[in-house]
Write a structure and sequence with these properties.
Layout lengths: L5 H21 L13 H11 L6 H15 L6 H21 L3 H25 L6 H30 L21
Helix pairs in contact: 1-2, 2-3, 2-4, 2-6, 3-4, 4-5, 5-6
């Protein structure tokens, strides 16, 4: 008898969000390259969107961005807006192509991470929270995007292992993979 455990996907999604949230608050402020820090809220949005669960992507993006804004010192609502738009764009672009291919997911994620980090850094410059354009782009945004891509790579490997050996995030096209449905 085949039993679908719909609660497993929800538990996995919630566990991923909680783990990334704890890491964002505890480890990310202490680990960085130059002045850049990882944005695990962006990684969560990418994991949900590129993992095949696209119906709630903008909602996940909004709440992840709001969490990031409230946990940091930047303007409240900016990252929420950026991650809502990112979730919508990734959900529209990536569902059928990259749900089972972590490499393609990371390749699609690289320009997204760069755009989100650069836009966020430039807005910080406009608000006066940074000194120069070179500082915000080359000392914050680019190292932050590299750390985001590294974090997504680690997350994709972990999700592939948790998903019972599927080839990537989603597992909907292969037997027994991880689905982030329910988040």
């Amino acid at each position: 008898m085949i039993v679908n455990d719909t609660g497993k996907a929800r538990r996995t999604s919630i566990a991923l969000a909680v783990i990334l949230g704890i890491l964002q608050l505890s480890i990310v402020p202490n680990v960085g390259i130059l002045g850049g820090r990882a944005n695990l809220a962006l990684v969560l949005v990418a994991a949900v969107c590129l993992g095949g669960e696209t119906s709630k992507a903008p909602l996940v993006g909004f709440f992840s961005g709001l969490f990031y804004d409230l946990a940091g010192s930047g303007p409240i609502g900016l990252m929420a807006l950026l991650l809502t738009l990112t979730g919508f764009a990734l959900a529209a672009a990536g569902r059928s192509r990259v749900a089972d291919d972590p490499t393609a997911s990371i390749v699609l994620f690289v320009p997204v991470a760069l755009v989100v980090e650069v836009v966020y850094a430039i807005v910080l410059l406009v608000f006066g929270q940074a000194q120069s354009f070179v500082e915000v782009v080359f000392m914050r945004a680019l190292p932050g995007a590299v750390l985001d891509c590294l974090a997504l790579g680690i997350t994709s490997v972990v999700l592939a292992r948790v998903g019972g050996g599927s080839g990537g995030f989603g597992g909907k096209h292969s037997g027994g993979g991880l689905s982030l449905k329910g988040l």
